[in-house]
Amino acid sequence: MIRLATRGFNRSLQIRLASHHVTFGQWIFLRILWEQEGLTQRELSEEAGLTEPTTHTALQRLEALGFLEKRTLAGNKRKQHVFLTKRGKELRIELEPLAVEVNEVALAGLSSSELDIIRKGMLLILDNLEEDERKAGEEGRKVPPTRIPT
Q1: Per-10-residue mean pLDDT for the chain, 150 residues long?
Q2: Do β-strands 39-40 and 68-73 pair in parallel, antiparallel, or remain unpaired?
Q3: What is the DSSP annotation of 123-149?
Q4: Spatial distance between the Cα atoms of 37 and 44, rounded to a whole number of angstroms
Q5: Among 34, 35, 32, 41, which Cα is nearest to 70's?
Q6: Which has fewest Cβ within 10 Å: 44, 73, 75, 115?
Q7: What local confidence, expressed as pLDDT, does residue 96 receive?
Q8: What architecture does CATH give domain 2-108?
Q9: What integer pLDDT is reported at residue 150 of this predicted model?
Q10: CA 135, 137, 140, 142 torsion-angle sign
Q11: Which UniProt keywords apply (predicted)?
C-alpha cells in the first residue's frame, strides 16, 4: 500500500509538472539544488539515490532547458559543479506549490489525529528499514547496482 501511495503521489506530481516541461526525475534534482548548489554530479547522484548515468541524463536535459549550468571551481579544473541559473531558481516559486497541492489532495478527509497516527507509523517504518539496511551493510550485503554489467 505504501508503494502504491508513493506511486500515486509521484504520478499526481508528474501531471502537474508536465505543464512546466519538467519531468519527475528532473524535479528530484531541482529540489536538491534549491537547497544546496555547487554539488558535483556524483554528490547529486548520492543525494538523489540514483546512478550517475541517470543523473547525467537528467542534468543534460536541465542544462538544455536553461535551468542549470556546470562550472569548474578554482583549484580543480577536473570536477564540474552544478549551479542553478536565474530561471532554475525562479522555478522554485512555480513548482513547490505543486507538491504542496499534491499533499493536500492526498490527505484530504483525514482528521488531525489520523494524520498524527500515519506520521508516527511512517517514521517507525522508515526507522525500521534504515536499521535493516544498516545491518545488511555490516554483514556485507549491499543494494545491487541498477546497471547491468557488460
Answers
A1: 92 94 91 94 90 90 93 80 95 95 95 96 93 89 59
A2: unpaired
A3: HHHHHHHHHHHHHHHHTT--PPPSSPP
A4: 10
A5: 41
A6: 75
A7: 95
A8: Orthogonal Bundle (1.10)
A9: 46
A10: positive
A11: DNA-binding, Transcription, Transcription regulation
Whole-number pLDDT of residue 149:
47
CA distance 17 to 11: 10
The Cα angle at residue 26 between residues 96 and 68, in degrees rounded to 5: 90
**Inter-residue long-range contacts of 66-73, CB under 8 Å, 24+ positions, other chains counted:** 67/26, 67/30, 67/91, 68/33, 73/38
Q: Residue type at 75?
A: G
- Sheet with 68-73, edge to edge strand ranges: 39-40, 76-84, 68-73
Residue 64 has what pLDDT? 93
Q: How far apart are CA 104 and CA 16, in angstroms?
A: 14
Radius of gyration of the chain (CA): 18
